[in-house]
Write a structure and sequence with these properties.
The structure is a single chain. The chain folds into 3 domains: 69 residues, Aspartate Aminotransferase, domain 1 (Alpha-Beta Complex), CATH 3.90.1150; 256 residues, Aspartate Aminotransferase, domain 2 (3-Layer(aba) Sandwich), CATH 3.40.640; 104 residues, Aspartate Aminotransferase, domain 1 (Alpha-Beta Complex), CATH 3.90.1150. The protein is α/β, with parallel strands linked by helices. β1 and β2 form a beta hairpin. The structure holds pyridoxal-5'-phosphate. The site of pyridoxal-5'-phosphate (PLP) has 15 residues, from α5.
Length: 448
Amino acid sequence: MTDTLSQAPSSATGASARIITEIPGPRSRELHERRVKAVSAGVSATFPIYAAHAHDAILEDVDGNRFIDFTGGIGVMTIGHTNEAVVQAVSDQVSKVTHTLFAVAGYEPYIQVCELLAQHTPGNFAKKSVLVNSGAEAVENAVKIARKFTGRTEVAVLHHGYHGRTNLTSAMNYNMHPYGTGFGPLAGSVHHAPNSSPFHNGLSGAQAAERTITYLEKRVGASQIACLVVEPIQGEGGFIVPAEGYLQALVEWCHANGIVYVSDEVQSGMARTGTYFASEHFGIEPDLITSAKGIGGGMPIAAVTGRADIMDASHPGGLGGTFGGNPVSSAAVVAVFSQVEKHGLLAEARRVEKTLRPALLALQKKHPVIADVRGIGAMLAIEFVDTVSGKPAADVAKAVQTYALDHGVLILTAGTFGNILRFLPPVVITDDQLLEAVAIMDDALAAL
Ligand SMILES: *Cc1c(COP(=O)(O)O)cnc(C)c1O
């Protein structure tokens, strides 16, 4: 157990899964006992293991077990765990200025992040940003800004969407039960419209857009809506890629009706899908974009970026907070952007798809319980449907997840029915690691 990642970080690049204790191992079990006594039961524990070190796509637990990490801290570690440039940028910044509160005394990294976001988000127009701490806070701020800009109150979202766990964003989530149960009353003025999901309803983009728009026009009234908040690829909903033309039709409808179109790219943004932001795949230029998870290379930071006139709608002091865009997190974002350029990480995300998609399609051929393989770039998923009943097979997703854990692969479930496995690996994951993980899923399905 001396062969740890901390002693030889780069040696873990390309490493295989390695399980040397029962799962969870003795040290993880010890920590879990302490956790149960000290940590609120409201914080869930997907895996019973505790992390000690991580590098690139490998996470090592406190018992020395090595896992191929398909979760990346839920799509945060896009550029890889403990990327050397991010670690260096964070260490340099922390000893220069750790905190001032940007509104009290400014600093360059905050401005650099806003410049980089303006440069790399879709849309050839003047853009501005505000930096905050979490994805949910970014979504909250996008709604605030859109309300102030339009003078309207109502917020539209889509079925199977996910936007966070604050009061407003809980109200915006589709899967309210069980996540929001008992926490009410939740914010009002939120309207859930049907989405586009070719696998689930077979509607074309035009048909699905007509259904969404008709619902909002009849139920709410276009003139009442401040913003429509949409994930270009629904994350928690199960990597639902909308039909061609759907998002474009929604953007056109928003613009014809004075509605601010907000693209929630907290999960799909920052190189995840082989472009900086997934909106690019659909040829749309959102008015506002929220980003968080992948932008900080593991440091907590989030942003709302968009049209300068909309972003300037708030009076001074209306946006911000104590820690928003703190210098250390901002320095990490600057390093992430430069790493994406320097190491061609957009192309790496496309390579992940090129290796993983055919492997998943081959798996589907062998195991017909896999009803769909979908996603873009390093954001792919498989959906399990019972071949006899046609019902979502959450038990299969769970069984494969557990088998994979025991054999050294961390995989997250997703979807309103929990019957989807989603793959959000760091884009620096090697082809060998991808194929090793798929082989373990193959064994898991064969063992069912
Ligand atoms: C994770 C997520 C959020 C919430 O982000 P937090 O940082 O957890 O608050 C919002 N929107 C989407 C699309 C997400 O995936």
